[in-house]
Amino acid sequence: MPSTTVRIAMNGVTGRMGHHQHLVRSLLALRDQGGLALPDGTVILPEPVLVGRSAPKLRALAARHNLPHWSCDLDAVLGDDSIDIYFDAQVTAAREEAVKKAIAAGKPLYVEKPTASSLTGALELARLAREAGVKNGVVQDKLFLPGLRKLRRLVEGGFFGRILSVRGEFGYWVFEGDRQPAQRPSWNYRAEDGGGIAADMFPHWEYVLHELFGPVRSVQAHVTTHIPRRWDESGTPYEATADDAAYGILELAGGIVAQINSSWAVRVHRDELLEFQVDGTEGSAVAGLRHCRVQHRATTPRPVWNPDLPASGAFRDQWQEVPDNDTFDNAFKAQWELFLRHVLRDGPWRWDLAAGARGVQLAALALRSSAEGRRLPVGDPAAPEPTP
Description:
alpha/beta; seven-stranded mixed beta sheet; about 30% helix; about 25% strand; globular
């Protein structure tokens, strides 16, 4: 079969997400499996070109994965005609300027979320890409998780009847960094560096809700910093200026109510780090990263509230596991494959910078809602904001 090498400039892959999910588990996994086969028989072989600010880190990463090309000069990489795609997984504060350069260079681009530090910036990137005619995409990996793919199957099959509500729980305890190293980089807890769980997670909740249940119409949130003092990578204490927990109530089109809690200061007492419970007139489901369980109306038991007697059985045992019925690949890799098909063969794609701007908008409105203590409407992010 004929093969085509696609050179992808990967900026920010020395970080946790860019390295593990995008480089190792996506593009290198594609390379190791022999490439991505297209419908016409062509096989796409991705060739990562590592980009970043630290030469020692890039050199070590390139050597570890047998990658011959790396650079600390983004302008030179973008000026190289052999580079086919630009990917950005940098810290949020550095992303906007780099993406503008990629657009100006005419490169198709794929970026992590949030796409920018502000809605104005996110809309500007979407406009520039549209006017330049460059293909673009935003990582929306949660849609490709096995548990949420099963949940989508239930929604599209009408399992729930009329959907009433969605309850989301996400989070885990991120160590402060004094007694045990933190699992997340310290910039996540500095607002001046683009940190904060609302900015990080509300873009995820926007696309999950939008794609599975309908557009978000209003948001009311409470955002807080539960752990005000943390220790950075060098063991130096610092004051956390960004939020580490966000509690939101969102109204969706059609009257569906979504309640989503996000926290880096919570200990896990559930089956998976992320779970959504969906309740409808005909049935309910609880979907996590991999699993999905259901309880249909016909098999719903009759719970009776009696605090003086122990429950007669385990409530979780009354639910049924949704079978896989498919082989699920890594969520990031699955979306990478779709994006490569979109760039090279005009395959279907809808997760662009305009969709990414909706996520930035929702995060900004959640922060504003918390600061003002009121519910805020959510409209078209590109439309002028109505006068109060």
